[in-house]
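User: Before I run my own analysis I want an independent prediction to cross-check against. Here's the chain; please return only the structure tokens and, at the end, one sentence I can use as a sanity check.
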Amino acid sequence: SARRFDYGPTSLWGAFSRANLVSPGARVTAKPLPEVQTMLGYRAFWLAEERDAWAAARVADSLGQSGDFIGNEFEFSVSWTVLPKNLALEFGGVFLLNGDFPGKAPNATGAGAGDSSYLYTQVSLAF
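Assistant: Structure tokens:
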């Protein structure tokens, strides 16, 4: 499966790093068929303090007047083991619905322009 850590799939999606955040979340995985695994996740993101920076996006308000809610992130994936020990397919994505901070921070050039999404597919072949 795709490399992922607490804040969504990694690779090109790098909206969050482990810096200046308060981020509760939940993740549910299910195996509806022996060869299929699914995952749904949700996480909310706040700055640890209103004067902190959203480190990965390099967005900050040193006066702390832009609020502290970055947004809500929804993640999903579906993995299918086509041939055990040989071929696996995965499809997934993440959607970030902006909160107030990305649109109000003084240096948020483009960050507040709209919500973000990232979709991916992955093929794993072993022989």
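Sanity check: The radius of gyration is 17 Å.
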